[in-house]
Write the structure tokens for this entry.
Amino acid sequence: MSTLKVSLPPHLREVLEPLLGILPKELDLLLESSLANAEIAYAVIDDVSKWAHTSSGQETLQSKNLNPRDYDRLALLAGTVTGPSQRLPPPEPKPEPWEVAQDEKNTRRAIAALVNGLFSVVGIATAVWWASKTTGYSYETRVGLAVCGGLITALAEGGLFAIYYNRRESRRSYRAKEREKHHRKLQRRYLKSLKETTADHDTVSETIPKDESKEEKVPEEDIPPAEEPDKPLRKRAVGNREEDE
């Protein structure tokens, strides 16, 4: 039986409880034990749905005034949550585009190296075969020389490919270490700036504010009186004209 479980909301519990006592014995026991928990196995819901679609199951449900359509798999799983108590693993980080391009480039290089090695083995074996024709060796000796030449070439190509692969992996690990080093450097710089900002804020907050009640007051007698505004000039009539005094 599958270990996958789903949540058991109230509406699903209300739909499944009327089935107790009318299901087959084994399925009835499984359903009864599942309803006592907050989760129910997906296999139990699947078995209930399969039973509800059988002819005997439909007759039993109709005799209890229950709608067989309510026990479809989709209807039973509606509103449930898959594995609420199971902690799923975190998703893997998405690789950077340049890393994907670099991996594809390395894959093409590896395939080209393997094809080149295969052609080298075949070419060396063929060359040894044709070169040994003029030596007067027997057919078996010529075949042995060709096979030995091919094996030696294969070993050489395999060694070169191993060196290339090790260098590629070392460069990849070096880039990963450099990225981690750069990330740690940025993190330390950020923490340092955050600490300095916090220290400046604490220094400003600890500064004693100026007490206005202790400010030196100027005595009232030292305050010069306010100057009165000039009075407007009085005018008098001289003949038909007015002149200022």
About this structure: The chain is about 60% helix and 5% strand. Helices lie at 10-16, 25-35, 42-52, 55-63, 73-77, 97-131, 139-206.
